[in-house]
Amino acid sequence: MIKNYLRLAYRRLLKDKFFSVLNITGLTVGVTSFILLSLYVRQELSFDKFHTNGERIYALAENVNTQNGSEVWESYRVSYAALMKDRIPEFQKMAMLGFVSGKLVKLGKENFHEDGILWANDEVFEIFDFPIIEGVTKLSEPGTAVISKTTAEKYFGTENPIGKVFELEKDGKFEITAVVEDAPVNSHIQFNFLISSFNALKEAAERFDGRGGTVSANYILMPEDVDLDKLIGKIDQLILSDWPDHAIRKEENGELINNAFFFPYEDIHLKSGFTFSPFTVSDIRYVYLFGSVAILILIIACLNYINMVTARSIKRIKEIGLRKVMG
């Protein structure tokens, strides 16, 4: 029976080739577009959801009032963030990541221009799930570095990179102490090289005066059941009591102009709306837009297919009548 139906369907396709190609092509394009857009939406919604403690990770962000108006930054002055880490107990697990000025990597007699170079501390691997393949991370010690698996294969092939030394323009020499898995494509944080945070934190401590200095992205693994409002109060109190007067900006009533706040790490990619971010962020509105377009395309494709089949069915009335008579 099934074989007979397949034979009849094949004959109908050959009998009206133009209609068959038009109908099948329209439905195929519609379904394919729906699948591709759905995969994009799924990918965007999966960002940063793979970390074991993702729900407890927060970014230390800042509302900044500039000459261009109010801005929201996913970064904080390194010197201030380091002091918070030292003074506030809830900040004991804080990953710090910052961009380095040099991007020219010297390995032996060869030079390479490399992107994705960050300085970091060891808490990056205590807070986030970036598996270590081999070696030990020692990013709190000077002159150490961690590289991704792809970077290790790119520069060293099958040779063991542990113990190898490379030189980074303007930042000196670094010994590779560990190789880690590449950050997944749906990770907010992306990197190829992670170098020691020692020099950056040392410089920040020497420039604790509010007059310049580098910034970093700071992510805190919060204790369970922490009160975020009280924690922000601790930050404000620390700033007002320990910051140099010229390092902070206050309203006439004494309140801070630039206010720190916490933003859930898992929502950064789509919902943060950061004006300045060390990493690429997107917008939840794109997900709504492309999701709606995907559903609309699928509905149009289905309706078009049904309409064309219905219009053509009039020509088959005679065939249907004969088939009923013949049983």
Q: What is the average of the pLDDT values?
A: 84
* Uncertain stretches: none
Biggest beta-sheet profile = 14 strands, mixed
Distance between the termini: 13 Å
In sequence order, what are the helices and strands, one letter per element? HHEEEHEEEEHEEHEEEHEHEHHH
Binned, the helix content reads 40-55%
How much of the sequence lies in strands comes to 15-25%
Summarize the structure.
With 327 residues, this protein is α+β, with helices and mostly antiparallel strands. 41% of the residues lie in helices and 23% in strands.
Question: Can you offer a commentary on this structure?
Answer:
The chain is an alpha+beta fold. Helix content is 41%, strand content 23%. Strands 1, 2, 3, 4, 5, 6, 7, 8, 9, 10, 11, 12, 13 and 14 form a 14-stranded mixed β-sheet that branches. β1 and β2 form a beta hairpin. α3 packs across α6.
Task: Break the fold down into its secondary structure elements and pairings.
Elements: H1 2-15, H2 17-45, E1 57-66, E2 69-73, E3 76-77, H3 78-87, E4 94-99, E5 104-107, E6 110-113, E7 117-120, H4 123-127, E8 132-135, E9 144-148, H5 149-156, E10 165-168, E11 172-180, E12 193-196, H6 198-206, E13 215-221, H7 228-242, E14 259-264, H8 268-271, H9 284-313, H10 317-325
Parallel strand pairs: 7-12, 9-11
Antiparallel strand pairs: 1-2, 1-13, 1-14, 3-13, 4-7, 4-13, 5-6, 5-10, 8-11, 9-12, 10-11
